[in-house]
Write a structure and sequence with these properties.
By secondary structure, this protein is mostly helical. It has one domain. It is built from five helices and no strands. α4 (51-67) packs antiparallel against α5 (74-96).
Length: 97
């Protein structure tokens, strides 16, 4: 029996959905700057999010947070964007070492 643990990609989708940034996997794919079936295909193949998609997602989360989200939810979305950028930066530092 294999127990699948959630990848960063699936966690990001769940967070975006719970914050009201997206309603579907298609919307999440587009928020990452990808084709609409990208998320479902990546999830099935257990692929991690690319740096490019993660940067796009972070920028889009911040943009939507500032323009569209209610004030009570905005700080959570901005925090998610910030944490995602920190994760990208840490990953880049590990690769450079």
């Amino acid at each position: 029996m294999t127990i699948k643990t959630p990848t960063l990609l699936t966690k990001l989708f769940s967070q975006c959905k719970s914050l009201g940034l997206v309603k579907s996997q298609y919307e999440f794919s587009r928020l990452c700057g990808r084709q609409k079936s990208w998320y479902s295909a990546s999830k099935c193949r257990n692929v991690q999010i690319s740096t490019d998609a993660a940067v796009t997602l972070s920028v889009m989360i911040e943009k939507r947070a500032r323009e569209e989200l209610p004030e009570d939810i905005r700080p959570y979305a901005l925090n998610l964007s910030r944490l995602l950028l920190e994760t990208i930066k840490e990953k880049a530092e590990v690769i450079q070492c």
